[in-house]
Design a protein that fits this description.
Elements lengths: L1 H22 L12 E6 L1 E5 L3 E2 L4 E12 L2 E12 L2 E11 L5 E13 L4 E8 L5 E8 L1
Parallel strand pairs: 3-9, 6-8
Antiparallel strand pairs: 1-6, 2-4, 4-7, 5-6, 8-9
C-alpha cells in the first residue's frame, strides 16, 4: 500500500513538472517576430554646391532607392581613398515584416566640411566599380 502511494505521488510530481514545462512554451507564439536587415546600396543621384569656404559646412542631397516601404536611411560609410578624396556609400535598413514591395526613392542629407583650401573629390558609390563623383573647390 505504501509503495502504491509513493508511486502515485511520484507520477503526480512527474506529470506536474511536464505540465509546467510544456505550458510555459504556449506563450511563445504570441511574440511578434522582428524583421530587420541592413545593407549598402548605390546612389541614384547627388545634388549640392561645388564650392565652399574653409570651415563651411555644405550639404548634398543624396538620392537612393530601397526595395520596399520598410526601407529607410541608416547612415553613410566613408573611406578616405587619397589626399582630399573619399568614397561614400549609403547604408539602408529594412525594419518590419509587412512591407509593400516596390522601389521607393529616399533622400538623405550628406554634410561636408573642409578644414583647408583645395580641391576635394567625393565619390558616392553607385556600384562597387562605378561612382557619382562630385568635385568641391574650397577657397
Amino acid at each position: 500500500m505504501k509503495l502504491l502511494k509513493k508511486s502515485f505521488i511520484a507520477k503526480i510530481i512527474i506529470l506536474s513538472i511536464f505540465g509546467l514545462t510544456f505550458s510555459s512554451c504556449l506563450g511563445d507564439n504570441e511574440t511578434e517576430v522582428e524583421c530587420y536587415d541592413s545593407l549598402y546600396i548605390g546612389v541614384k543621384d547627388v545634388t549640392g554646391p561645388v564650392t565652399a569656404s574653409i570651415n563651411e559646412s555644405i550639404t548634398f542631397n543624396v538620392f537612393f532607392e530601397v526595395e520596399s516601404t520598410c526601407g529607410s536611411f541608416q547612415g553613410f560609410y566613408e573611406e578616405a581613398t587619397g589626399t582630399n578624396e573619399k568614397t561614400i556609400a549609403v547604408q539602408a535598413k529594412y525594419l518590419g515584416c509587412n512591407c509593400t514591395i516596390g522601389t521607393v526613392t529616399r533622400i538623405a542629407p550628406y554634410t561636408f566640411k573642409a578644414l583647408a583650401t583645395g580641391t576635394y573629390t567625393l565619390k558616392f558609390k553607385i556600384t562597387n566599380t562605378s561612382f557619382k563623383t562630385i568635385t568641391v573647390v574650397v577657397s
